[in-house]
Design goal:
With about 90 residues, the chain is of the alpha+beta class. Helices cover about 40% and strands about 20% of the residues. The chain is built from three helices and four strands; from the N terminus they run αββαβαβ. Helix 1 packs antiparallel against helix 2. The chain is globular. It starts with a helix and ends with a strand.
Amino acid sequence: MQAIRDVVRRECGPSARVRLFGSRLDDARRGGDVDVLVELDDPVERPAVLSARLSAMLSRQLQGRAVDVVLSAPNITQSPVHRTAEIEGRLL
């Protein structure tokens, strides 16, 4: 999990927070992708590009495992997945 934090903070700054959520929180539910919520205090100019870049970098760090990145920033509309990640996610 340190690798995830390191990549996110390198790309998004030291104030970025990362939450792991979804099936990876339950050891009994093996398989599936890694879901992370990246919380940012400042607006993101190109959220889709940042999300894709983080996903690719994290996938490389995790030996090719698929990584879904959800961004939370002041200029990004919140969806139900944001709420789920905030409630159920574990801060890394």
